[in-house]
Specification:
The chain is α+β, with helices and mostly antiparallel strands. It has two domains: 8-287, no CATH class; 302-434, PknH-like extracellular domain (Protein Transport Mog1p, Chain A, 3-Layer(aba) Sandwich). It has 19 helices and eleven strands. The strands form two sheets. It has a seven-stranded antiparallel sheet with strand order 5-6-7-11-10-9-8. Helix 2 (42-60) crosses helix 8, helix 8 packs across helix 11 and helix 17 packs antiparallel against helix 18.
Length: 439
């Protein structure tokens, strides 16, 4: 999923989770905006930010090279910034294709306003942000004074990161690989959230080192989104859970890394980046001597095979996490966990011809068993997704269904699985023959 702007955000939901954790509170019905009402003047906020630089620097073990530019902003300004960014042709094209692909996969309801919803949920969730282009921290005037210190510690960490690496280059989007983008964002947001958490914990007399079994992912599972955000709670999981992934899984990844190697070695993550959400979810796959690297898959010449009228509208890599979300939504959580693990690599391409949408996905798995588990899980997903699916052909290694949206094929061959949805039966056989796949 494309991250709007090069903005690095304190997410309200994550802040809410940290507040309850540090204050030792159980579940409540309050929202972040209700924790405290006192607002501060711009001058007070600027002084606070300057004072917090020392705390952030001490936690990270890095000195600020220059002073940080700061600006107080409001929600209307933030919305205008997001709308301006989203109207860039390359982002409009990407989000349009991505939204249609998610609808075809069953991750979004039909006719869902994907671009519009993204803007609104980002505006709702922003508690503060840093923009590398102008080297400025934007302080949210709608947040209470009591919440500003942790928010500013998060954003100051981004400013500090930007003084040691080029954040914009580090997070330069590969429009054809959302999985890679999410893994890089997880490092940056995980580090900033961990600094924020350590800052908050120190105010209560303890540290992340005092909580060896602490997990942001486990904590958020105990705290429904609606307690911190009505819009986030109503969002389809492909939006809400990919939005919070870098802050939750990224923080857990950084916590594991820092406990093992210390803060000084975090610089290693800048030069030797994680390459997949699989490595973020399972830190040992990054931290081990032999890293579990993703397999590159490149499906070529599909438009030539499809013929006249079809045009490609999106190419992407889903990765372990989005595959997990897909299977969780269409099967069960337990089924999704098992079937998404052992991911090796994938590529998905989405095509449109008039009102028809077609997806073709090739995935590679670590073992034949892993490939078979995904094949079985996706077969169940197809049955749950369509209302009038009918098996037209099947074998030990493949299924072919007719559905209300044309034909669906899934086949497994050793460690590889091919999925085709939205094609005619004739087109499916043509694709299988071209790629020497099986029937």
């Amino acid at each position: 999923m494309k991250k709007l702007l090069y903005i690095f955000v304190s997410i309200s939901f994550v802040l809410f989770t940290c507040c309850l954790l540090c204050q030792g509170k159980e579940k409540s019905n309050i929202e972040v905006s209700q924790i405290a009402e006192k607002k501060a003047s711009p001058q007070e906020l600027y002084r606070l930010a300057d004072q917090l630089m020392a705390s952030v620097s001490k936690i990270r073990g890095l000195n600020f090279k220059t002073q940080i530019k700061k600006k107080v902003t409001n929600k209307d300004t933030v919305r205008k910034m997001l709308l301006k960014d989203i109207q860039k042709p390359e982002i409009m094209t990407k989000l349009d294709g991505e939204g249609k692909m998610f609808i075809k996969l069953g991750l979004l309801p039909k006719n869902f306003d994907y671009k519009g919803f993204l803007v609104e949920i980002y505006v709702e969730q922003m508690a503060g942000f840093y923009v590398p282009e102008d080297k400025t921290i934007y302080i949210a005037d709608w947040m209470s004074m009591d919440l500003q210190p942790p928010i500013l510690s998060h954003e100051l960490t981004h400013a500090l990161q930007d003084q040691y690496i080029d954040l914009k280059s580090y997070l330069k989007s590969d429009y054809a690989n959302s999985d890679l983008n999410m893994s890089h964002t997880s490092v940056i947001e995980g580090e900033a959230t961990l600094v924020m958490l350590e800052y908050m914990m120190k105010n209560y007399g303890f540290s992340i080192y005092d909580l060896p079994n602490f997990s942001m992912v486990q904590i958020q599972d105990l705290m429904p989104h609606q307690e911190a955000s009505k819009l986030l709670a109503s969002a389809p999981p492909i939006i809400s859970e990919t939005m919070t992934f870098p802050y939750l899984y990224g923080t857990d990844f950084l916590m594991r890394f820092v406990r093992t190697y210390g803060w000084k070695q975090v610089a290693t993550l800048y030069s030797d980046k994680p390459l997949s959400t699989e490595q973020i979810i399972h830190p040992e796959k990054y931290m081990s001597q032999q890293k579990d690297l993703p397999v590159t898959i490149n499906i070529k010449d599909v438009e030539t095979i499809l013929g006249k009228g079809w045009r490609k509208i999106n190419t992407d890599v889903l990765g372990e996490y989005i595959i997990y979300l897909l299977l969780k939504q269409l099967t069960t959580k337990d089924f999704a966990i098992i079937a998404s693990q052992g991911w090796g690599g994938d590529q998905i391409q989405c095509f449109q011809n008039g009102s028809d949408t077609l997806i073709l996905m090739m995935s590679s798995w670590d073992t034949e068993k892993d490939g078979r588990e995904f094949f079985n899980a996706y077969s169940h997903a197809v049955i749950n997704k369509y209302t009038s699916e009918h098996i037209e052909d099947k074998g030990n290694n493949y299924y072919l269904w007719s559905t209300e949206e044309r034909y669906v094929y899934i086949g497994v061959n050793n460690k590889r699985v091919l999925v085709i949805e939205g094609a005619t039966e004739e087109l499916i056989y043509k694709i299988l023959k071209t790629y020497s796949f099986w029937k």
